[in-house]
Specification:
The chain is an alpha+beta fold and 174 residues long. It has a single domain, classed as Aminopeptidase, CATH 3.40.630.30. The relative contact order is 0.15. The model has no long low-confidence stretch (mean pLDDT 93). Bound molecules: coenzyme A. Coenzyme A (COA) binds next to strand 4, helix 3, strand 5 and helix 4. The site of coenzyme A (COA) has 24 residues, from strand 4, helix 3, strand 5 and helix 4.
Length: 174
């Protein structure tokens, strides 16, 4: 899939907070992410983005003509036993789907994780979320397990499918 050249991937800044929250609200309204729209707050998002340190997390946006059309985060494990790992999540504006933006965002998270020297990226996806299941498969993630009824989306319990991608170090130049 070739992403439209007008779509740009870049690090999110605090100035993107309003647009990111608007995007997450529209995705939350689909009921697939389990985000409580009422808990989304642009000011808190701006503070989080301003404080973000690349050593610990990445936040990325895809933009089209300065409009945010996708958002992804990678969050590194905090404990000594998990500090080599990150967890990825992402959302694409419903009007901009199936144009390769999800793949582009996952490539961005992967590039950040490689640059940070991490070993693996994990992600959890509701079993009912066909688009995200297909995206992670397509991006080379393996299914590592299923947590039954792990997610509660609205009034419904839903299994969570756990994905993982092992990152291999780049080959040494000859
Ligand atoms: C999942 C999501 C991020 C995909 O974003 P996207 O920009 O539409 O994905 P892409 O266009 O990069 O799709 C890449 C590939 O994933 C698969 N895919 C994506 N959406 C799909 C769908 N609805 N049905 C089947 N396959 C799909 C396809 O293989 C696709 O390649 P193709 O279009 O060449 O067939 C988007 O649907 C979304 O934001 N969903 C709500 C939030 C969410 O579920 N986030 C993931 C949980 S962390």
């Amino acid at each position: 899939m070739v992403v439209e050249s007008a779509i740009r991937l870049r690090a999110a800044t605090e100035a993107d907070a309003d647009a990111i929250v608007a995007l997450l609200r529209s995705v939350a309204a689909e009921g697939m992410l389990g985000i409580d729209a009422a808990s989304l707050n642009p000011k808190e998002e701006a503070v989080r983005l301003a404080a973000l340190e690349l050593e610990h997390a990445c936040a990325l946006v895809t933009v089209h003509q300065s409009c945010v059309v996708g958002f992804a985060v990678g969050v590194r494990g905090l404990e000594p036993t998990t500090v080599h790992t990150a967890t990825a999540s992402l959302a694409v504006d419903p009007r901009w789907r199936r144009r390769g933006i999800g793949q582009l965002l996952l490539q961005g998270v992967r590039a950040w994780a490689m640059a940070a020297g991490l070993r693996r990226i994990g992600a959890g996806v509701a079993r009912s979320n066909a688009a995200a299941l297909a995206l992670f498969h397509r991006a080379g993630y393996a299914v590592e397990g299923v947590q039954r009824d792990q997610l509660r989306i609205g009034d419904t319990f839903c299994d969570e499918v756990l994905f993982g991608l092992i990152l291999l170090p780049a080959a040494e130049p000859k």
